[in-house]
Amino acid sequence: MGTAEDFKTFLGNIAVDNHQTIELRYGEITAALNKKYRDTESKTANSLQVGSYGRWTAIKGVSDLDMLYLMPARSRADYDGEGGQSRLLKDAADAISARYPTTTVKVDRLVVRVLYTCFHIEVQPVFERDDGGFDYPDTYGGGSWKVTRPREEHDALADLNGRKNRNARRLCKMARAWRNRHGVAMGGLLIDTLVNNFLEGTDEYDTRSYLYYDWMVRDFFAFLKDQPDREHYAALGSRQRVKVKKKFQKKAAKAHDLCLKAIEADGEDNVGAKWRKVFGRHYPAAKAAEVRKAALVEAGTQARDTEEFFEDVYAVDVRNYLKIDCEVSQNGFRDYLLRPHLLQRFRIGHSKSLRFHVVSHDVQQPYKVVWKVTNRGPEAVRRNMIRGQLLPDAGREQRTETSSFRGDHVVDCAIVKNGVVVALDRISVPIE
Predict the structure, then answer these.
(1) What are the backbone dihedrals phi and psi of residue 381, each rounded to the nearest 5 degrees, phi first?
(2) Is pLDDT at 403 greater than 90 in this prediction?
(3) Mean pLDDT calculated for residue range 146-161
(4) Residues 6+ apart with CB under 8 A from 104
(5) Rounded distance, CA 428 to CA 279, Å?
(6) Would you report the helix, strand and coil content of the chain in percent, each value rounded to 5?
(7) Which 3 state secondary structure label does DSSP give 116?
(8) In angstroms, what CA-CA distances link 429 with 139, 341, 345, 346?
(9) Whether the Cβ atoms of residue 185 and residue 320 lie closer than 8 Å to each other
(10) Distance from C-alpha of 311 to C-alpha of 416, rounded to nearest angstrom
(11) How far is CA 68 from each of CA 154, 237, 307, rounded to the nearest angstrom?
(12) Which residue among 5, 104, 268, 389 is the one 20 to 30 A from 274 at the CA level?
């Protein structure tokens, strides 16, 4: 297949594949709240799907869904007084729990969280304003209602998508695939805002489509890597503040370099494998398995390709931050951390003890940590030690290995919450 067909297939591969289930859950929640507040059982009236799913920029594995329930104006007086906002959230949660008692429902600071297998819906009861915005409760807000304007964000993206030959939503989706592949802690609204800013600043892709998507993603990552450090952006449409959780420029620069290499390999058998380094295994690489098998055969070995992948076991929807490092030690030598060592392009010697550990993250309990240790290079093949299986953490958020043989090995770490990989990090382990 050529570039256009590959990108078209890629976008098909990352499309949300559980629409029916998501719509069913939205309808159940809406019906429960309509029954309480309006004595009807409509599954669609008085609710809005917002967030990435509502803007139609979500991809396969989306786990953080958002919904507004439009409260009847006559109920405003019941919740305007002291403690009213907390009571509103509790009343909404109780209504959902009463209708679906086996479903886990929790009140959070701003929303009611309804937990399902592999995704949750954050329900925000709101009162519509005359200016098209919505007042929503904040239990930490000291009595004042906060304002949200998701319709403006949705409309701005829809308008941009129409003016840019439907490229806006597609680029938003591809950016999410990159985020999930490389563990970039970026929220969906920030991604959509940055895509908006990029496409508004160029007319290069106003009429072009799939055939030019290699250039479009290359230029988008060039745009990202050159962004100044900022604490927040003004959201598309609403202009409300969108927080930057962690700097993304370094990983965007790496993605830009990978795009350049993939574009240079256009027409070659390994071009799909190079794009997979940018976007992950949803990018088509028809010959990937054959290439891996041929490499093993060429090495004259019966080595088994034992590598496993997070996305084959869990939904992947990265929205949190994770950092891991490795403490390198050996009797008679001073211990050191691996990441600063890598910046100087040093390699690790043999017979070192390697303690990989979680340095920091922002995921709330409960969660579990999963490790993946993959050996690479001719020596790993010759010894039949490719490894790459997904390994549960023993409870201390660390894993000990030994530098046994030469190769550019890799250790991945994932934090899994409610069956979803929400944070990822990777560290290279170059051994002499």
Answers:
(1) -65, -45
(2) no
(3) 97
(4) 114, 115
(5) 18
(6) 40, 25, 35
(7) strand
(8) 46, 10, 11, 10
(9) yes
(10) 11
(11) 14, 18, 42
(12) 389
Average pLDDT on 374-400 reads 88
Phi, psi of 353 (to 5 degrees): -90, 130
Question: Above 80 in pLDDT, residue 397?
Answer: yes
Is-contact 213 8, C-beta < 8 A? Answer: no
In the three-class reduction of DSSP (H, G, I as helix; E, B as strand; rest coil), residue 225 is classed as helix
Token pair, residue 67, equals 């919904």
Of 236, 227, 220, 239, the residue nearest 160 (C-alpha): 236
Per the CB < 8 A criterion, the answer to whether 46 and 59 are in contact is: no
Whose tokens are 């899994």? That residue is 416
Q: What is the mean pLDDT of residues 315-343?
A: 86
Please report, as a single letter, which amino acid is at residue 318.
V
Q: How far apart are CA 133 and CA 152, in angstroms?
A: 8
Tell whether pTM > 0.85.
yes
Residue type, 241: R
C-alpha–C-alpha distance, residues 208 and 165, integer Å:
7
Nearest CA among 40, 41, 44, 36 for reference residue 97: 36
The alpha-carbon radius of gyration of the chain (Å, integer) is: 24
- Span between the terminal Cα atoms of the chain, in Å: 39
Query: How open is the CA angle 178-183-189, to the nearest 5 degrees?
Result: 65
For residues 63 and 116, what is the distance between their CA atoms, to the nearest angstrom? 9
Residues 162, 164, 167, 172, CA torsion sign: negative
Distance of alpha carbon 295 from alpha carbon 129, whole angstroms: 63
CA dist., res. 253 & res. 258, Å (int):
9
325 CB-contact burial (10 Å; exposed 0-12 / middle 13-18 / buried 19+): middle
pLDDT confidence band for 300 (50 / 70 / 90): very low
Grouping H, G, I as helix, E, B as strand and the rest as coil, residue 384 is coil
Specify the amino acid at residue 48.
L
Residue with tokens 């003016």: 163
Largest CA distance in the chain: 78
Phi, psi of 9 (to 5 degrees): -65, -40
Element (H, E) at 107: strand 104-107
From the centroid of its chain, how far is CA 198? 20
Residue type, 91: D
Q: Which of 30, 50, 49, 51 lies closest to 41 in space, CA to CA?
A: 30
